[in-house]
Amino acid sequence: MTELAAATAVTVDLPRPEYPRPDRDRSARWLSLHGTWSLDTPGGAVPITVPFAWETAASGVERTWLERATYRRTVAVPAAWAGARVVLCFGAVHHRARVLVDDVEVGTHVGGHDSFELDVTDVVHPGEESTLEVEVDAPADKRSIPHGKQRSIPRDDYDGVSFRPTSGIWQPVWLEARGRTYAAQVRLRGESLAGFEVDGVLVGDAPAGADVVAQLATGERVALVADAHGRFAGRLDVTDPRPWSPADPYLYEVEVTVGEGRSADRVVVTGGLRRIETRGEQLFLNGERFYVRGVLDQGYWPVTGLTAPDDAALVRDLEIAARAGYNLVRKHLKLEEPRWLHHADRLGMLVWAEPPGPSRFSDAAHAAFVAQLAPMVERDGNHPSLVVWGLYNEEWGLDWDIPGSPERAAAAASAYDALRALDDTRPIVENSGWAHVRTDLVDWHYYDEDPQAWADNVAGLADGSRDDFPVRLGPDFVVDKSLYGSSEFPRRGVPVLNSEYGAGFTSLERAWSMRWQTQELRRHDRFAGYVYTELADVEHEMAGLVDADRRAKDGGGLDPAHVNADTVLVLDVVPRHAGADVPVPDGDWRLGAHVSHHGTAPVAGRVRAAWAPAGTRFGEPVAAVAAESEALKAEPFVLSPAVTLEVPAPGDVSAARLLVWFEDESGATIARTFVDAGPLEPPNRRGARV
């Protein structure tokens, strides 16, 4: 066996063996190209496991700052594909790729996160082996190319929050057979909630004038004819339509057929009937008001980097978010693979998607950023779970200077315009964090360790008495950032929501901050939602709900689902410290409580409280109810008036936990929180002796 054959032998257990595009299904005729390839490097050829980036342990290479390499393997197109068109598909290759088959160039691509495909029909022969090569250029200097949170040499301005680079083939790569004339693009939009707008593009032998049929399994169908450019469009009405929502994530499968007979093309495209819109300062999903309860997700794994180790890992992360009470995941500076989006569709998790950005501003860097948008929308726009598009993040790639630079402000606005022209069905955020000049959501990123400062600043942002807040851009670089990058941007009339927050060094402090900071966001009805940072730890960043291996952390007895519920309690307390929110009362204590309720109908009931030993969780035995409020009614999306609980002292204890809950008129507990009472030890620090 030759060295090349040994390096490219088919293994029994391929990594990531599942079909990569369940949302655009052609799995009847496809071939995974995962497994062992040969990688030519300046130091010689080594085996590499695809689809894992060459920086990762999973790849078998684990090499950082390798800027150029060539992948090589043999591949045999199945003999049964004779007469079909053969398409080579890449999920993502960072950053520049030149693809050859038997030394014939079949295409090139620039852009490390967007997908691309190449029709290789004319250079492969079904039943015979060919040699496939992918030459990759992955610059160490990533500052002017879209790269998200990958490290760069020279370093990025935000290097301190960046992670290992991701280079080479890092998302699925596969072959599939298609009809002689086939649908290269299919767009489904279900915003009417009564049917789908269907359009697309045909390529291949004879796209002009080709017949196209879009049909549901229930029989509804529409027959279309492509124009002279291969474009087709029409409407597929749905009998007894069933909207997609987090509560009922119902998906439709639309079979799109081009032509007839053996040479016909068939693809099954998944979509949902779903409408997301803004009305003034509020968000609506399918005509009903909703509130974003989101969590930021970097999409990294310890051994495999930006590539999920297996399909179960993609599902697990969505399930972790759902169990914690979140209804949205903000996938941060990464175009996650379509299988993850399909699982979000299937499980009913809303998605805020955003591409990676550059870190320095230039006309070329901005052009490279905008170049990602069309393939991003084409690949991901059919997913009903995807409800927000993000663009730039925190002025990265705009030199942290939108307000001081008309050129950079114009770049943010032009990115918005470019994306809006591609998709007019979703809200767009042009620069997440602050300094907005053209956006559908005014979002803000704010981190603060001081509970009183957090409460005061959040209240000021809610009532409009302030529009700025302190942002630490480096260890010794703190600036005040404004929500607005232009005096012309309206101060009212656009939804306002937080899209990054969290504080604390230890797991206990993180949980403590989540509990109190989130309640302050729920205190103010103006806000349309929040996004907590973050789902899982990544390398040196330890802010996750779970660690990098997705193991639970010690949150001091906090269940995040209680913090992120439809109905929560908001207590009139400014906590002092994790584990000691208040001193142990030595007499009666008056505790004010409100209810924030985001259901579809009012709820009524009473707030109750009981003392328990420190660390007690809800569900564990407690003593009798210590205090009960008067009757309370909470209207949807309106903070209730305060009720007062007269709480007696817990007795002669050094620490205790006051469990507080809201019980509706049926006796069901629909909101839970707690207050820890304990001593606060002053710092025990002695000055240095001289």
Walk me through the structure.
This protein is α+β, with helices and mostly antiparallel strands and 690 residues long. The protein contains 9 helices and 41 strands. It has a 6-stranded antiparallel β-sheet. A 6-stranded parallel β-sheet has the order 28-27-26-25-24-33. The longest helix is centred in the middle third of the chain and has 17 residues, at 406-422. It is globular, with a radius of gyration of 27 Å.
Q: Quote the average pLDDT.
A: 96
Query: Helical region count?
Result: 9
Number of strands: 41
Main sheet overview: 6 strands, antiparallel
Strand content: 25-35%
Q: Span from first to last CA?
A: 74 Å
Q: What Rg do the Cα atoms give?
A: 27 Å
Protein structure class: alpha+beta
Helix fraction bin: 10-25%
Break the fold down into its secondary structure elements and pairings.
Elements: H1 3-7, E1 24-25, E2 30-32, E3 35-41, E4 44-50, E5 68-76, E6 85-90, E7 93-94, E8 96-101, E9 104-110, E10 116-119, E11 129-137, E12 168-169, E13 173-178, E14 181-189, E15 195-204, E16 211-216, E17 221-225, E18 231-237, E19 252-258, E20 265-271, E21 276-279, E22 282-285, E23 288-290, E24 292-297, H2 311-323, E25 328-331, H3 338-347, E26 350-353, H4 363-371, H5 373-380, E27 386-393, H6 406-422, E28 428-432, E29 442-445, H7 451-463, E30 468-474, E31 477-482, E32 496-500, H8 507-523, E33 529-533, H9 560-563, E34 567-571, E35 589-597, E36 603-613, E37 627-628, E38 632-634, E39 643-647, E40 656-664, E41 669-677
Helix pairs in contact: 2-3, 7-8
